[in-house]
Each structure stands twice: as C-alpha cells, then as structure tokens.
C-alpha cells in the first residue's frame, strides 16, 4: 500500500463516484455506469479486497478474465464489445479513485481495453423502417391516440431518445403552431435535471422539433381522452403518464419490446415458436422475442429512413441531437448497395 493513500472499501468508493457524476452526467449515463461497476464490486468481494488501496494490476487482469468468462450478473461469456464497455467504466472509476487518494494515480493505465476490429463495436440491430411504419399504422387503426400509439409515434416521428420523450410536459407542446419562433405544430425538448428529466446532451439537447398536423391531432385526442390527469413528484404535468404520474425510465423501452413482437399484431411467429409455450408472450419477458426491438433500434431505423430520402445530414443531426459521426457509426443502417446507388444520383455519368 502506498503511504499517501487513504483506506476505503470498494463499494464506498464506487458510491462516491456515482455521487460525483451527478454534477456532469445525465441519469441514463449514471445508471449505465452503476450497472457496469456492480460486477467490479462483486469481484472485489469474492477476492477479499476490502480496501481499494490494495488493488493491483494483477487484480485488474484477473477481473478482466473473470468478467470475460461471464462471472457477475451475466452468468455466461460476454461479447467483446460488452467487455470493452465494462473495462472502460473501471478505468473511469479508477481515475476518480486516484483523485480521492484511494489508488495510485497511474493504476487506471493498467486496465487495457480490447482492440476492436472494424465495426465490431457497433450493433447491427435495427427496426427496419418498413416494420416501424407497419406497426405505427396498426396502432393508428387498432388503438388510435392510446399511450402505446403516442409513444411509438413520437419516437418514430421525432427520432428522439426515450429520455427526451419521457421528459415532455404538456407545456412543451405547441399543437396549434402559435409559437413565434416555429411555424406549425412543434414539440420543445428541454433539459430539466433538477426535476428528474435531464437530456443526454444536457443544455445542447434543448431544441424545438416540428411535427405534422396529423401528429398534433393525435396528441390532442390522447390528452383529452386517454391521458390520466396527474402530476409527477415535482408538480409537473407529464405528457406521457401512468395513473401514478410520470412513467419510469424503462416503461417506454418495454412498450417497444412489446409492440415489435409479430405475435402482438396477430402475425405468424417467424421463429417457429408455439405462442402458448413461448415465454416472450408474457409482458415481462417481451424482450426475449428475437423480433423484439429497442428504442435504439427504432432510432436507427429512423436515421436510415431519413438517409434513404436524402434528408441533409445537418438536418438529421439537429433533429436527433447527435453528431454526424455517431449517426454514421451507430444509427445509419443502409446497405452498401443502397449507399452506392444514392451516390450515383449526385454524380455525372462515367
């Protein structure tokens, strides 16, 4: 142990790290970091590391192997991209730990990250635009202006993240187009960290998004006929509500998992499963359906739709509040052939 270090238990240091993150990071980021470091604390418990001062480079190597083999919450070997994310969280935590005199300043450098091959750290999962449109059409006919319909419609029409949709209040809607800075109906996404609804990019994420007249009318019907008239814990009036107030963070995610299952719309199962025996037919296990898709998948499908329609990159970037690099790497799912064919539209005959 280095003489300048001050003893502290791993779980106490992690708790301090999470508390420090409140000043600069969105809730979703803090939640992800907390989940990733849970395994690290478990490893320290199993290895008998009661004082973080005693953590060594050899321990960090053992943790890498322990995590790769699936110890912790996963119970099975994890993918390389998942391992990279887990180790990156440990590196960030150790840099913080050095600042509070819990570990040597250079210890974080001994956490080496796996080298990813080209594109290996990018998920290929997406909700194809055609499927998204079919699901939305089904909801418009079967459950118009229901909460499910509104959630899917807003995620698809705006391309926004679930946290941004969840954070909308009634006051953020300009359904009659009366706002002087926006022509036509629009939605205002606002960063409100003090009352539980931060945006991922914080103040930079605050923006107006235009919506169609049709979308505005569905929102009006939802508010009048289906929205429970409740407030959240901060006295705000959420747009998307449950009977108890603003929904939990994973409610929108669970909605997407549920409505993207083919059997939910009465379609045959493409995976040759018996609906009476398939666990994914139960609402709490909808994500286990191979066809179920997350909000991130819907967002990538929306980007692909915009790119197919040749919407300018700057417009897509501003509407979805993401950099062009992130859009290209993580959201654009056009095939190489599609991209080549679109490029020919802007090139002279060769």
TrEMBL record:
Signal peptide residues on this chain, from the entry's feature table: none
Record has DNA-binding as a keyword: yes
Source species, domain of life: Archaea
Domain Tyr recombinase intervals: 122-345
PROSITE patterns assigned: CB, TYR_RECOMBINASE
Residues covered by the Core-binding (CB) domain: 8-98
Disordered: annotated segments: 184-204, 322-350
Keyword annotations of the record: DNA integration, DNA recombination, DNA-binding
GO molecular function list: DNA binding
Descriptive protein name: Integrase family protein
